[in-house]
Amino acid sequence: MLETRIVHDMTSVDHEVQEMVSGGCVNEHIYLFASDDELTIRLAAETGVQPYRIPEKGLFESLLSKFTSNSHDRIEQMESLGLTKQMIDSLEHEIQDGKIVLVCDK
């Protein structure tokens, strides 16, 4: 069973994670998705959840990713968690609008 949360700002992420944990989720099964790789890694580390898989990149790819979207990687991970295409499209739209998405695989 999957549970998703849309978080409107960085300061609310920890609160939402705690709500998910108190609702039966385990930190190791909560995935954080944000529009920026560095933000994703930092927030995941601060809250004790998993960042979505961020592929290893060489120097050129790292520089290029500053100017391009990493949505393809996010979409692949959301698919691997079992989210529907409609849900993925909706969540990706929220991420593009600057929101943070949490997904728990219970």
Topology:
Elements (H helix, E strand, L loop, with lengths): L1 E6 L5 H10 L7 E4 L3 H11 L2 E2 L7 H7 L5 H11 L3 H12 L3 E6 L1
Parallel strand pairs: 2-3
Antiparallel strand pairs: 1-4, 2-4
Helix pairs in contact: 4-5
Characterization of the model:
With 106 residues, the chain is α+β, with helices and mostly antiparallel strands. 48% of the residues lie in helices and 17% in strands. A 4-stranded mixed sheet has the order 1-4-2-3, sandwiched between helices. Strand 2 (30-33), helix 2 and strand 3 (50-51) form a beta-alpha-beta unit. The chain starts with a strand and ends with a strand.
Summarize this structure briefly.
The protein is of the alpha+beta class.
Largest sheet: 4 strands, mixed
Q: Give, in order, the helices and strands.
A: EHEHEHHHE
Mean pLDDT: 85
Helix proportion range: 40-55%
How many distinct helices? Answer: 5
What's the alpha carbon Rg, rounded to whole Å? 13 Å
For the biggest β-sheet, the strand order reads 1-4-2-3
The number of domains: 1
Q: Give me the count of strands.
A: 4
Strand content: 15-25%
Structural class: alpha+beta
Shape: globular
Span from first to last CA?
5 Å
Low-pLDDT segments: 55-68
Looking at this protein, list some descriptive labels.
106 residues; 5 helices; alpha+beta; 4-stranded mixed β-sheet; globular
